[in-house]
Amino acid sequence: MFKNTADVDDRLQQLRDEFVLSLPKRFANMDVLWATVKQQGVTPSHETDELYRAVHTLAGSAGTFGQQRLGDLARIIEQSLRCLLDNNEIVTPAILSTIENDLLTLKNSVLSKPVVHQSPNTTPTHYSNNSNIHIALLENDDVLTNIIATQLAIYGYRVQCCSNVSELTTVLINQTIAALRIDIELSDGSLISPALADSLLPLQQYNIPLIFISSQDDWDARLAAVRIGAVAYFKKPVDCNVIANRLNNFINTKQ
Amino acid sequence: MTTLKRLIYVEDEAEIREIASVALELVGGYDVQIYGSGAEAIANAVAFNPQFIILDVMMPDMDGPTTLANLRTRPELTSTPVVFMTAKVQPNEVTELLALGALAVIAKPFDPMTLSNQLSDIWEQRNV
Questions:
Q1: Where do the domains of chain B lie, and which CATH numbers do they carry?
Q2: What is the ipTM of this complex?
Q3: Which end of chain A has fewer CB atoms surrounding its CB within 10 Å, N or C?
C-alpha cells in the first residue's frame, strides 16, 4: 500500500543522505575505540564491546541505506573481532594490521560508492504555495547564482543571494529565511576554511536548515559541513528538482 | 483470515527506526508503534494491542530475547506472533532465535521497499 511513490522515494533518499552524513562521526568513534583496543589487546572490555557493537550495527544497517559494500566490509571486521573474542586467539601484529586495514577500507568504501540521487518525478505544481518562502544562497559565482535562483523560482521559492558571510548575516537578521544553501567552495576552491567555518557557526542560532553543495566528496568536506550543522550535503552537479524536493521536506518538517 | 494491521517494532538504532517507519507505515500501510528499547516496549505494548511483534536482537540494556521473555509474561501478549530482525544470521544464531518461539528471523540489512511484503508473507503463512 503505497501512500505516494514520489513521497516514499524522496523520504528514502533523504534518509540515505542523512545516513551518509552520520558516517564521519561513526568512523571517528570507531577510530577512538580501535586505538584503545589496539593498545589493550582484543580482549573483553567496554571498548571492545563498543567497537563490536559499532561494526555490527553498521553491518546490519548500511545496506538498508544503499551502502551494501560498506555493510559487507563492516561484517568482515565484525567477524574478525568475534573470532578473536570467542576463541581467545593470540592477537598478533599481523591480525591487528589486518583489522586496521579493514577499518581504513571501510571508510574509503563510502568514497568509492557515493549515494546517487535519482531523478524524481516532480513537477513544479507541488510547490505552488512557496511564494513567501525565502531561501538564502551563499555563493560567489554570479552566473551560478543566477541559474540556481532562476531554477528555484520555478518552484516558487524566493532566493536571497549573498556573496559573503557578512551579507548573509544581514539577510538573516532582516528577513525570515526558511533554508540556507551554501556552496562551500567560496574562497579557496576546496574545503570550508577554518575562517569560513568560524564565521558560519553563529548562524546556528537562527535554526535554519543548512544545505551544502560541493564538488568535493571526501570525508573532510562532509565532516566540515556536519560540524557546522549541515542537514544535507550534495555533490555537484546537482539536480535542482532534488534540491527543491529536499527544501520542501525540510521546510514542511520545520513548520 | 485476520488482516495484519497493528504491529510493534523494537529497535535501538534511531536511523533504522526512521527507515523502518517509512517501510512499514508509508510502504506497508500498517499502524505501527516503534520503540527504542525493550523497556519502552514492555511499558507500552499492551495498551497498543499489537497483532505482531518485531524485535531487534542486539540492543544495549535489554536484548531482543530478554525483551521477548518479558513481553510474554503479559497475558495479552503470550501468543502474539514474533519475528526477530537482526544482522546475526549465522545458522546457529537463527536456530537459537527460532527456538525462542519466533516465527521467522529477518536478516538485516533489509530492503525498505520489500519489508512489508516479507512480514505479510510471514503473517499469512503462520498457520499454514
A1: 6-124 (3.40.50.2300)
A2: 0.89
A3: C
Q: What band does A127 get if pLDDT is binned at 50, 70 and 90?
A: very low
Among candidates B29, B86, B109 on the partner chain, residue whose Cβ is nearest the Cβ of A64: B109
- Put simply, the answer to whether B13 touches A61 (Cβ < 8 Å) is yes
Look up residue A155 and give its amino acid: Y
- For the stretch A126-140, what's the b/e string if a residue is b when 16 or more beta carbons lie within 10 angstroms of its beta carbon? ebeebeebbbbbbbe
Q: Cβ B16–A61 below 8 Å, yes or no?
A: yes
Substitution target from A1, A9, A53, A55 for chain B, most B beta carbons within 10 A: A1
pLDDT of B5 reads 95
Domain ranges within chain A, ordered by starting residue = 5-112, 124-254
* Inter-chain touch B19–A71, beta carbons under 8 Å: no
Q: How many residues make up chain B in this entry?
A: 128
Query: Does the pLDDT value for residue A18 go beyond 90?
Result: no
At residue B128, the pLDDT reads: 58
Q: Which of A2, A64, A71 sits opposite B112 (nearest CB)?
A: A64
**How far is CA B62 from its chain centroid?**
15
Higher pLDDT, A10 or A92: A10
Q: Which amino acid, residue A170?
A: T
Domain A5-112: which CATH number of 1.20.120, 3.40.50, 2.60.40, 1.10.3470: 1.20.120
**CA–CA distance, A35 with A38 (Å, rounded to integer):** 5
CATH, range A124-254: 3.40.50.2300
DSSP 3-state assignment of A1? coil
